[in-house]
Amino acid sequence: MQQITSESLVTGNLTGAVADAVATTPFIDIHTHLFAPAFGEIGLWGIDNLLTYHYLEAELFRFSSVRPDQYFALERRQKADLIWRTLFVENTPISEAARGVVAAMHALGLETSTESLDTAREFFRDQKIEQHIKNVFRIAGISSVVMTNDPLDQAEAEVWKRGAHFDGTFRAALRLDRVLNGFADHLHQIRADGYAVDADGGRTTMVEIRRFLEDWSKRMEPAYMAVSLSDDFRYPQNDIRTRLLREAVLPVCRDLRIPLSLMIGVRRQVNPALRLAGDGVGIADLRAVEAICREFPDNRFLISVLSRENQHELCVYSRKFSNLLPFGCWWFLNNPSLVEEITRERLEMLGVSFIPQHSDARILEQVIYKWRNTRRTMIPILTNGYELLAEDGRPVTASEIRRDVAKLFRTNFEEWIM
After folding, report:
1. Is position 167 within any domain?
2. Number of domains, the chain
3. What is the pTM of this model?
4. Span 271-291, pLDDT tens digits
């Protein structure tokens, strides 16, 4: 066991030691909606995509008399101009999503107070995507990202079927939403790929879904499988989703040693007129997590819940089930005030045995501001924890701080997906 000497203890600038560790550790972004360059136009980047992100679309309708149907009839460039004028020129961009665009632009050397987007558009037109990705990742302080890859999305599937392989910068996550949440609606696509599945979910269908998942796992080599679930998710139930989980998905995950990520709590389309911006949040019944972790002790689960009210319960379950790894502050929770509250609670209950954050970025440049915010929020949280520990008689060393930061943002994930 390493001996801790007084000379190695951080007794002075604890905040500086934490800040240095947080700044110099290359984070792994374990959940994004980004894509490697091989996917072409599926991957989103640039000022017009940044501004037409659905978080900002929702804000637009609060500040503008423009109706959703009028907005969605516009071209992307027109939408971006409208959002820029409304949220950044006529109003102060102080919200988290708007301030994030400012931070990304500033980090890239772009003017943030201009009334015109011409210079920003010219800047992005001049970028070569491969080099731009490297530059953005460098600024964001991340070494790699995990994509979200849907085998039933035809455009994505074609890239994989051509034998696409990626270096460690981009890793796959095998997304199961269409399989688990809309099985009947997507049967024809699975059949078209050569799998003999039926709506009744009989034994043959389960065998074929296993084969489907095994084939796609071989093709993608995913870090994990994943599904987004509504706030009314229950397990077990007498339905096709429970059968698919119990008889196909979880056995394959266990046999191939692939974790399953459950992201629970979305309420889809509470206002359909807003399209992607129209989803909401609900409080989930986490007894489903309890049941699934208990029934499948040899499986590993990554769990994120969308409701603030579910966070403490998730921490308690994490203390009861060692096959559960909580991660991130997802979607509506990705605001510094909530991230701070949730992360402090997890640190107090779980030590450093969790993953504090992921970006959930859909637009490449979003990783700049999302990881900047995370670093800024984490420094006082960790500093406070170490200060309390020192007051109680156990100062820490700089190497221990670096080890803790690496666990939180790298090695916890790396070891979970081994």
Report:
1. yes
2. 1
3. 0.96
4. 999 999 999 999 999 999 999
